[in-house]
Specification:
This protein is an all-alpha fold and 355 residues long. It has a two-stranded antiparallel ribbon. The protein is globular, with a radius of gyration of 20 Å. The chain is built from 17 helices and two strands. Helices cover 70% and strands 1% of the residues. The longest helix has 30 residues.
């Protein structure tokens, strides 16, 4: 008998927020979820069906992560991109589910590599079930994602998402190689982010356009190019803000832990910039705490103080704003309407989390 799981709630709030409501940075997410509600419910059903297995641990572990409270931003990009291009079929639902499975699989693998114990305030799957189960279920989810891609029957879609999967893996290896490496540069950091994070954002938006263009070949091909660029720039902006928030009190106010990147000796942009501007004494601190991974209880506070002294957290946010602005410009070819506006709002949301 196949394993069962509780249906995760991917549907979002019941009503579209007032368009003038800027009380919370999450307002853009609320609006987007409400806009794609019916499609997101269908994605939910697809995920539940595809997570079923006669091995009980697989749906239990997969459901633990799927239900852990993520925003579902990547699959919503696929849905919104397809609808913005006038698509009225069902393949965008399968592709959105595939995107979510790819993302979930990478999270399972990430937590094993990073030896993480918490994700969104809950124990990680590797803590509950162990590293071996987490890796193998991650592999299972990758396989399910590829089954969904094949079901769509579009070679270019398969090419885009399979390429994104390999680029994400390359990004993980690049990040591992750069860990503790204080010679890392802005260029090195951006290569990691563009591979590890932005590649799936880009592919998620692009495949939504691809299914629409297949249905209506008369649409301008620059829409597909623009949506891919939008996803890439949005992904970079999103990761830049996440990396800055890891050293910011704002992260704690969002209900997330701070300092995880520091404790894992990750060379994120705030560290890259802080080390580049450090004097000899400060460089010695970074070499010990990041390069050698020898940290004391007070080192994180010291790291934050050094970053504030050199203004690197604010500068990281400034980089994010530039990428978000580029993302909005990438939507120029997209037809006006509620979906285009929702995607523009998500670009603003990506940096509004900093405030």
């Amino acid at each position: 008998m196949e394993g069962t799981l509780t249906k995760p709630d991917l549907s979002g709030p019941r009503e579209i927020a007032n368009q003038n409501d800027a009380a919370s940075p999450d307002t853009a997410i609320v609006r987007l979820k409400a806009l794609v509600r019916a499609d997101l419910t269908a994605v939910n059903d697809e995920i539940v069906e595809r997570m079923a297995s006669h091995v009980p641990m697989i749906p239990a572990l997969a459901a633990h992560l799927v239900e852990s409270g993520g925003k579902r931003l990547r699959p919503m990009l696929t849905l919104a991109a397809a609808r913005a291009c006038g698509y009225d079929g069902a393949d965008h639902v399968r592709l959105a589910a595939a995107v979510e499975f790819i993302h979930t699989a990478t999270l399972l693998h990430d937590d094993v590599v990073d030896e993480s114990v918490l994700r969104r305030g809950s124990a990680t799957a590797n803590v509950i079930w162990g590293n071996q189960a987490s890796v193998l279920v991650g592999d299972f989810l990758f396989s399910r994602a590829f089954e969904l891609m094949v079901d769509v029957g579009d070679l270019k879609v398969l090419q885009v998402l399979s390429r994104a999967s390999s680029v994400i893996a390359e990004g993980e290896v690049m990040q591992l190689a750069a860990q503790k490496d204080l010679s890392s540069t802005l260029e090195t950091y951006l290569k990691v982010v563009e591979s590890k994070t932005a590649a799936l954002f880009a592919a998620a938006a692009q495949v939504g356009a691809l299914v629409a263009l297949r249905q209506d070949s008369g649409q301008a091909p620059e829409i597909e190019v623009g949506l891919r660029a939008y996803g890439r720039n949005l992904g970079v902006a999103y990761q830049l803000v996440d990396d800055a928030l890891d050293y910011s009190g704002r992260q704690a106010s969002l209900g997330k832990s701070v300092g995880d990147d520091f404790r894992e000796s990750k060379m994120t942009l705030p560290v890259v910039l802080a080390f580049a501007r450090a004097g000899d004494e400060e460089k010695a601190f970074w070499r010990r705490a990041i390069g050698e991974g020898r940290q004391t209880d007070s080192d994180f506070d010291e790291a934050v103080a050094l970053m504030e002294r050199h203004g690197v957290i604010a500068e990281t946010f400034a980089y994010a704003k530039r990428y978000a602005s580029r993302a909005k410009s990438d939507l120029e070819a997209l037809p006006d309407g509620a979906y285009r506006q929702a995607l523009l709002d998500i670009a603003d949301f990506s940096v509004a989390r900093a405030h």
